[in-house]
Amino acid sequence: MNTKFWLPTYQYFIEFPARIQQADALAFAGEKDIDGILCQGVLASWGTTAVQRHIDQYLIWINSETKRIEKVEYTIREMYNFIKGAAYYRNYKNFDGILLPTKMPVESNLVKNGLLHEMRILDMKWNVVSQEELRPDSSLTIMGDEK
Question: What is the rounded end-to-end Cα distance, in angstroms, of the chain?
């Protein structure tokens, strides 16, 4: 497992609802039934919604009733241009005022049947580790949305 790729990727999907708001190219993608739930689709990208060689794009399916994310389809251009995936946002729970999905099954075109893997949030504890411990070398630039 390539921890340098997967750890920030997992973090990105947990932070996705806040971070995707930085996308500046959006398009309505219609309606779709996902597991019996009517959803509205929004294509989100940067610069343009047209296919781009080095920029991931996200098709976000939002529950028409609750306005929560049900599913995110995405490209993985950082690894290989042909890989696509989808993460479901399931089992939302409230952690001290922050609503998070606790179960995120992931599909990919890398597997013919079933799931590639499943991300889960088992529990949440706030500020257990200080910023100084997480960033011992403060001279390094903060990566932000970069992986």
Answer: 16
DSSP bridge partners of 62: 40, 69
Q: Give me the pLDDT at residue 20, please.
A: 92
Residue 101 belongs to what H/E stretch?
A: strand 98-108
Joined tokens for residue 72: 């995110």
Q: What is the dihedral of CA 66, 35, 117, 87, to 10 degrees?
A: -40
Q: Are 86 and 117 in contact (CB under 8 A)?
A: no
The arithmetic mean of pLDDT across residues 33-38, rounded, is 96
Q: Which two tokens stand for residue 118?
A: 């499943």
> pTM of this prediction?
0.80
Question: Which tops the pLDDT comparison, 52 or 34?
Answer: 34
What are the structure tokens assigned to 116, written together? 């590639």
Tracing tokens 């070398």 back to the chain, one arrives at 137
Indicate the pairing of strand 84-88 with strand 58-63: unpaired
Structure confidence at residue 147 (pLDDT): 44
